[in-house]
């Protein structure tokens, strides 16, 4: 089998390593078949799409809607690298699944409006499939509504005509979309379980996702409902595109 790639941007080793382990666990891949590239540490290498089965993108602290002058040199580099990669991915309709930060990269590439209109605190939210989502092959094993982990400062306000809306939540109209037949992005985190999001809550406590005095409330919020369905998307992605 040709390997999949996980493009990651987390600078903190503990959540970065756990993110990789979560993608391995829920995709069903092993380390030989899921190559991790930490973009915050090194430039993106030239990816030969003919040698790959598909691409995953993990979450991270970068926000596409941040003013350009506040972005670090690393963020500017990573954004430019994604623009170049997505030129080829979209043109070839190559299998791509971006989670959280992935929706910002793909959304930016396609000309979506991304701003601070629809943030969601770190929590569990109900995600509802659209008619297009309910009939999409990647979501074939998903119920019409399912709980998912979220936590983001920005979101897509307006999708371009090139994109198909697949899922929404009460406070965030774009939870998942696709471009073409094989290029996907989610606002929610399909890779997370309760232990994984607990690690991230502690790791990013000072990043503005919640106030210092809200730590315990935030930890309680991610335990209020069992989250089990979203990870199926990762395994279905692998089953559909492994070659």
TrEMBL record:
Q: Which SUPFAM superfamilies match?
A: Class I glutamine amidotransferase-like (SSF52317)
Q: Which InterPro entries match?
A: ChyE-like, Class_I_gatase-like, GATASE
Keywords, ordered alphabetically: Glutamine amidotransferase
Q: Domain named Glutamine amidotransferase: which ranges?
A: 49-192
The record's section on CDD domains has: GATase1_1
Provide an example Pfam family for this protein: GATase
What is this protein identified as? Answer: Glutamine amidotransferase
